[in-house]
Every structure is written in structure tokens, then in C-alpha cells.
Amino acid sequence: MKKGCFIKSIVLLTIVTAVVIYIIQNKFDDFILKPAKELLAESIVNDWSKEIKFVKESEQKDSLKIIVNDFLSTIENKEMLFDDRFKSFMTYVASVVEDSIIESSELNFITEKIKTELQNERSTKN
Question: Given CB 3.0 to 4.6 Å as the disulfide criterion, which of 76, 81, 86, 102 pairs with 60?
């Protein structure tokens, strides 16, 4: 290998390495994390649609479907999908749907939980 060819390959390898390191350090969220989070958000919505199909037809089912779908569609911050409060909320909703009957008390509890915890409308401490 000639000296000129070796030096050119070292320079090119250094530039490529610097570009890769820059992308990983500064643009990792934009290129990898955000698309992955959006795919997970879509899968959560699809799973929810499958779970609600087995519930008996009632006004509560329609109300719950509207409430949860509106809530899922209004989430602007994808970080919230990975929050423990959101996971506990969806676990509770799944347990409500599990027995195929939705009671109005459960529906009221879900509505209140959305208003307070998940929308961050808590009162502040003095």
C-alpha cells in the first residue's frame, strides 16, 4: 500500500468515525428513540382496540371507548406512554375490561383518574 493511499484511508476512517460518534451523541433521540416510541404507541392503541371488542355492548362500553381513545389521541408527550402512572392506569382499565362488564362506578373512577393523575391537575403543596 502506498503512503498516500494509507494516509487517505486513515483520514477517511477518522471522518467517518467522528460523524458516527456525533450522530450517536447528539441525534440518537431523533433518529432511533422517537420512531421506536411512536411504534410502541401505535401498538398500545391497537392492543386496546382488541381488548375492548370482547366487552358486552352497553353505554358504559361506548363511554369507556370514547374516554380512553380520546385520552390516547391527546397524548402529546410520548414520554408519558412509558410513565409508571400510565402503566398502572392501563392495567386498571385492562382489569375492568377483563370481566366483559363495565360498571358505572368503574367508569367514573377511570374518568376521575384521567382528570387528576394523568392530566397533572393535582393541587400543589404549600
Answer: 102
